[in-house]
Amino acid sequence: MDVLQRFRLDGKVAVVPGGGGAIGSALAKALSSAGACVTVVDRAAEAVEETVAVICEGGANALSVPGDMTVEADVDRVIAVTLETYGRLDIIVNAIGGGAGKVLFDAQVYPRAEWDWIYELNVRSTLLPTQAAVRAMIAAGRGGRVVNISSVRGQLGINAGYSAYVAAKGAISSLTRQWATEWAKYGITVNAISPTFVDTPQVAMLLGDPAFKEALVARIPIGRVGTPDDLFGAVLLFASDAAAFITGQILTIDGGLTATQ
Ligand SMILES: NC(=O)c1ccc[n+]([C@@H]2O[C@H](COP(=O)([O-])OP(=O)(O)OC[C@H]3O[C@@H](n4cnc5c(N)ncnc54)[C@H](OP(=O)(O)O)[C@@H]3O)[C@@H](O)[C@H]2O)c1
After folding, report:
1. In the prediction, which pLDDT does 107 show?
2. How far apart are CA 248 and CA 180, in angstroms?
3. Smallest CA separation from ligand 1 atom 37, residue
């Protein structure tokens, strides 16, 4: 048996909400390199088209579907277009989220509007596409793969005004375990990666502060922050047949940071 074949995604179809973002576009390209056809979804048409152009340049197959993943009609359209185009849907990799460090307020006065915004961005935008994708997977009866992105902040407190982000990523980790439990009977596995800081525009301002970055890196045994490339291995594993018996897991990708806590 060619064991590496079990890590390939040839013949599989993946949807990547947030596929126009820094991490999502890197993951969409990685899924495509492993053999999957990919539906790239993001709010801005230019963002999805950019990712799709890179994938198609290499001769692979990808579909660009702009849409707002907090709006049911857009979500339904993404799944419908994917099924019409490729005839199946096997994998969803949820890469929408963020807001860490953008709206910091003391926990006792955290404003409702900012709380709701962080929740919509991180939880609703994962919840709706996953529900729709999994309904299609259940209807097809071939099983499937759900991969979420949580964060080290879903696991560890921080002495700064991060309540909403911490709660939202905690919800993603909890939903990963809950969905894994409910959907195992359909052959659908659900796992998450949980990165520390990944060098992307979203955290450029925080990482641009030399004192902040120095203190952060000093706490990471491997001695650097992450890059989108550091996330490929775990996501491709969770998306593949090689991970058929792995579900409900949250894999921390942090250069050893949480090992020191
Ligand atoms: N970067 C890090 O250090 C880090 C660390 C741990 C976890 N994460 C997580 O990794 C994920 C990706 O982060 P990233 O750094 O790649 O962020 P990013 O570059 O901002 O990517 C997220 C993408 O999702 C899009 N988006 C937001 N809301 C949407 C919606 N309702 N419908 C459709 N698209 C929407 C964004 O579009 P707009 O630009 O138009 O908003 C953006 O293109 C997030 O869940 C984040 O929390 C990141």
Report:
1. 97
2. 5
3. 43
